[in-house]
Amino acid sequence: MRAVHLSSDRLQHAAPITHVAFRPDGRRLATSSYDGTVLVWDVEGRSRPTPVARLHHRRLVNASAWNPRDPEILATASADKTVAVWRIGADGAVGTISTLARHTDDINSVAWLPDGERLICVSEDGRATMWDGLTGRFLASVASHAAHCMMVSANSKGQVATVGEDGMVAVFSPDDDTRRATKLYESSVEGCEWSPDGDTLAVARDDGHVDLLTAALDVVVSAEVSSSAVRSVAWIDDETFVAGAYDGALHFIDRSGAVIGRHSDDRAWPRSVGAARGVVAVGSFWSTPHLLDARTREPAHPPSEPTHGPNAIAVHGQDVFVGCDSGLVVRLPVAVIRRGDDVDPGAVEVLSTGGSPVLSLAYRDTGLFAGTYSGEVLHFADGDSRRIGVGAPVPSLVAHGSGVLAGTYNGELVHVGGGPHLVELSRVEGHGGSVKSLATFADGDIVSGATDRTVAIGDHERRGPLWEHGNLVNSVATLDHWVASASRDHTVKAGRVTRDPRGQWVASDIRTFLGPDESVKAVALIGDPAAPVVLGGSYDFKVYAWHVAAHGAAEDRLSGRVVFDFDQAVSCMARVDERRALVAGWDGRLVLVEASPDGRVAVVGELSLPKLIVASTRGAAVRS
């Protein structure tokens, strides 16, 4: 397993912050990141947070937890399938205590039991396991979910709660197996935390609610917080808590379920929240944590510098548009990528959405459209921009009819018209999960892939399934009569899609390609439409190529050939023309991949997007 390598000259993150954790005394804060590191910050006295230590994993870090008895001990959980336990001295000196390395999948969350010795770890494989955190010894499997186990919290009484994508909440005591309760929701539950007194469990639901539960999992209060998923919750004191939702906001709520305040900032990523000593911390798309005053709900120390990880690519002729975590969209000619980092800044244009990360892009004759994390669709045209809210993050966009079709985190397909004023033309439920990717097909129909594991086809109102994956679908692509999809189940599928005698779309000649032993994030089709090349980009940092027709040995068709290796996961890709595709990695690099007529696939250009943005915006106005 290769390690993430994102360069940073200073003690700050080079990618978005996935998790925040205050030490129990509130004097230090640990922030975890996609860059494979954990930074420990001195936040005492509410002066500007000062970084004191950096800890490294091989892959992104999902969470951390401070030891309740020894303030120098921190456990960190990573997608490299390990939990590391560290000692961090008052002077920032770092030592390793143990590494818990028997896990079979990414670790999503960790929690110490009150004894300060035992540690509960929860994983993508659905299991909750208990370890001696100080010696690294495995103790027991203590719970199991039918899907990814997402969060664990332990209270001062030794009771443990776990929640998962299967909608199950489980409460148990490792010291008394008879004290076990479960509750099942219809929606995914991905966040939980016990109240300071240990009597009440707050759970964050994917349907926009937060429930307060007893230890027996009886509902005390159910608060409707957001029209989008609630993903995190943290208690400020025994009477108030804060919930982070995928509407981009922090919601402040009292024990009665009344929402008493709200804070929204495009730089914040409410995937994780924490609270201590009157301060609220929230994850960030930027390089430093976002801290608020819990009483006034005003920023105490906002993030200082953006990160420019690419999330989306759109192509118009020989121009490429790349959307970033910083809310910027970069337009550049394909020829610039061939020349590499020696770029004339005048050949590049930088547009701004106003700060919210750009998750999707689409181009049509009226101009560029962008979908954002804050749940807006923007239209850039005639030197100006217009926007409309659609109620949830927009991970996918495609030109359709008189405007664009937006696929939302809530599973809806929203048809937005691109006239003088953006107008919502229609809204339907497209999938039973987040619509991760959209691609145009024949006769004006659309192919979609979603977290409900399905690939579907049709217009924006009437759709039918093509095939299913074993896990969520990250990306879909089309070329002529071919459709390809990339999934978290570690595979890429490609099939020929045609109409049957009744006029219905049907898939045939479906092939399954195996490459990495990790989630495949992006897919593209290039080359001869009669026998295309399938490109897949993975969380193992590599770009793979498979030939639909037989080129080379059978094992090459099965496992693919590695075309390029980034220093972080592949984030997105898009076909530029019949034989070329642009691929972006979260290390900020863009590479141009070309399939030659004889079937060879090679990288023919490369450049650094962050360097390009810095060079292009130095002293220049950014258009919004």
From TrEMBL:
Residues 186-236 form the Anaphase-promoting complex subunit 4-like WD40 domain. It comes from the Bacteria. The keyword Lipid metabolism does not apply. SUPFAM superfamilies: Quinoprotein alcohol dehydrogenase-like, WD40 repeat-like. WD repeats lie at residues 10-44, 54-96, 100-141. Keywords: Repeat, WD repeat. InterPro entries: Apc4-like_WD40_dom (IPR024977), Quinoprotein_ADH-like_sf (IPR011047), WD40/YVTN_repeat-like_dom_sf (IPR015943), WD40_PAC1 (IPR020472), WD40_repeat_CS (IPR019775), WD40_repeat_dom_sf (IPR036322), WD40_rpt (IPR001680). This is WD40 repeat protein. It comes from Saccharothrix saharensis. The lineage of its organism: Bacteria, Bacillati, Actinomycetota, Actinomycetes, Pseudonocardiales.
